[in-house]
């Protein structure tokens, strides 16, 4: 089993807010998709392993989710920044991968793997009381951070 991966969607080579944080939480493992992916990948300061997928100027979240699901199936935790594109693709990706979505995470980490089951910890925003709630969940996840 491989470690976590961050999916960073770029438009015209511009990184979304939270891109470096998501990549750092994924241990430096990034998949950069969109337009201008080479420029976007070069701007990631926390990345150690980068794969990129140039899709051109159009943005097709359903098609992206389908392609990414195949690419990321071996990663127990997939993290997307909470940009507009990340919030659009994350639930589609979770559905394609048949995984629960961990939305509203302020920080997220793969903490252990026992008997092949990953364990994910996160601090999730509970908006109605303006607080962070620590959660621990077992199993593969897609998270919006």
What is the fold's blueprint, element by element?
Layout: E1 5-10, H1 19-25, E2 29-34, H2 37-43, E3 49-54, H3 61-72, E4 77-80, H4 84-97, E5 101-102, E6 105-114, E7 117-126, E8 131-138, E9 141-144
Parallel strand pairs: 1-2, 1-4, 2-3, 4-9, 5-9
Antiparallel strand pairs: 6-7, 7-8
Tell me what you see in this structure.
Helices cover 28% and strands 39% of the residues. The chain has 145 residues and is of the alpha/beta class. The chain has a six-stranded parallel beta sheet with strand order 3-2-1-4-9-5, sandwiched between helices. Helix 1 links the parallel strand 1 and strand 2. Helix 3 crosses helix 4. It starts with a strand and ends with a strand.
Contiguous runs where pLDDT drops below 50 for at least 5 residues = none
Percent range for β-strand residues: 35-45%
Q: How widely separated are the two ends?
A: 22 Å
State the share of residues found in helices, binned by percent.
25-40%
- Summarize the helix and strand pattern as letters: EHEHEHEHEEEEE
| Class derived from helix and strand content | alpha/beta
Overall pLDDT level: 92
Radius of gyration: 14 Å
Overall strand count: 9
Inertia-based shape: globular
Brief digest:
This protein has 145 residues and is of the alpha/beta class.
Keywords:
145 residues, alpha/beta, six-stranded parallel β-sheet, three-stranded antiparallel β-sheet, 4 helices
